[in-house]
Amino acid sequence: MELIGIQKKKDKEAENLLKQFRDTNVQATKFDLKVEDRRKAWQDVFSLLSRSNQVLQLEALNCGRILSRDKNGLNEVISEEMVNTLMKLAGIDGENNTKQGDDEVGLESLKVLSNLLHQSCVVQSYCTKNGFLSKILTKVNNYSKPGKQNGQSKVFDFRLIFLFTALCPEQRDVAKYNHDGLKTLRDALDDILNGKSDMDEPSLSEDDCLVVCEILKVVFNLTVDTKTDETKDITLVSATINRLLRINITDFDSKLKVVNNCINVVTNMEGKVEAFKALVKPSDILLPAEPDLVYEGLVVNTIQSFLDFLTHKIDNTNPGSTLKEDITPCLSVLWNIGRSMRVVRKFLKSVVLPPLTATDLKGKPEDGNTLKAKLVSLLTNTNGDISTMVAELLFVLCKENVGRLIKHTGYGNAAGLLARRGLMAGGRGAGDFSEDEESDTEEYLEVRHKINPVTGGVEEPVVSPLEGMSEEQKEYEAMQLVNLMDKMTRTGLISPCRVGEDGRPEAVEHVLQLIEGQKEKEQEDSD
């Protein structure tokens, strides 16, 4: 390998060898080297960083970044001194300055350090002992001081904190309690937002959004498993998210990424009503992207942005991701907020499950291009997590009233949730909701008697397939059906069941069990 022995070369010759290695291995991720050769290559490359030639330093770091793609041998060859050298070049030195690490050498050092931290548990161990977390948070705190900051460097600073707190979970509490990490992250977001206040039309650029997304990923790490006494911190984070989602973001894809990361953070706020309240307060953002959307005294723009995100993701799943990854966090957030705040639940219901009209009832609930239709169609999705989350959200919007859920979705679509909850015979869930009646439109009341409760839509009268048959023909067809069902039962294709006393389906061993108690029920009804 051309890198071995490079420390003996003069600057120009060494620079040419580094460029040759870089160009030859621009796409390489694996290197067939023995451990000793790897160690020698890394040591010789790093020896060049002590020279004052900045171009040489940059090329050496480029080669280090390429070498760090290969995980093999990193634990054995990377020394603590190398990590400290990278930190110093990147400006992660704990000093109160804003100049170090803002040039190309500093940025490339951050990239190498990011790869090494991700690839090597030994490097992670070094960083737990050398004050890495304290020093990089000091660097972040210095962003607000005078001095130009490189946007890409900011991205990698926060990416390093994210990686460190993700790969070393014990460092999350260290960041929160020892270094006031959440406040530092909130201040970083506020600095970005406040920096837009002198613009004629305040907005976030694509570069701004890259930094914001990396910060939000760190916030997510630090708010996982938050304790009750941390409600104040979480509420302040929630208020910052509310501000963030009100400012204009010109690039649509960047906006989606910001909303997605905000949703991920809000998933950590389950049960914290004060944090949810902060999401529906007026924002102090000057010239927000949209005017305040007020519903019964609450500003629900942030909730609407979650609904818009959900609608988009149902229709557009990103390459490399799944529908489950894209929408279940958002479904969880809407379910949690709707269950915790009455007015937000009413707003969500007005958007997702508006009063039924004659037009709605002409087709099935899952037909159409509305958000309701899209969600109802997901009730029968083959992915159990998706169908369960959608069902739970719709059930909460119906105040866990079985009759209302069936009215909006049809019994067939709701059967999965009703079976899980033991509510196949009707009733209510265990949630604490008011008993007020649901207002129905006159159009709905006029056709209510024509609705098929299983499909949830009005079905036009059809000619009976038995019309014109003799009694013998009807009996023959009935026996054919019985024989077919018996065959499917014996082969295990289907299993006859009935609704048990707990409201859940229970298997029966004989068809006669299906009519047990039926005569008593009919007698009770006649009485």
Description:
This protein has helices spanning 11-24, 35-47, 54-67, 74-77, 80-89, 104-119, 121-129, 132-141, 151-167, 171-178, 181-194, 206-223, 231-244, 252-266, 273-278, 301-315, 323-340, 342-352, 358-361, 371-377, 384-397, 402-409, 411-421, 442-447, 471-490, 518-526, and strands at 203-204, 248-249, 294-295, 298-299, 451-452, 457-458, 497-499, 505-507. With 527 residues, the protein is mainly α. The strands form 4 sheets. The chain has a two-stranded parallel ribbon with strand order 1-2. It contains 26 helices and 8 strands. The longest helix has 20 residues, at 471-490. Helices cover 58% and strands 3% of the residues. Strand 3 (294-295) and strand 4 form a beta hairpin. The protein is elongated, with a radius of gyration of 31 Å.
Mean pLDDT: 89
Uncertain segments are 98-102
- Count up the helices: 26
Q: Provide the spatial order of strands within the biggest beta sheet.
A: 1-2
Into which percentage range does the β-strand content fall? under 5%
- Oligomer status: single chain
Task: Assign the structural class, choosing from mainly alpha, mainly beta, alpha/beta, alpha+beta, or little secondary structure.
Answer: mainly alpha
In whole angstroms, how far apart are the ends? 95 Å
Total DSSP E strands: 8
- Shape, per Cα inertia axes: elongated
The largest sheet, given as strand count, sense and whether it forms a barrel, is: 2 strands, parallel
Percent helix among the residues? Answer: 55-70%
Question: Using only CA atoms, what is the Rg?
Answer: 31 Å
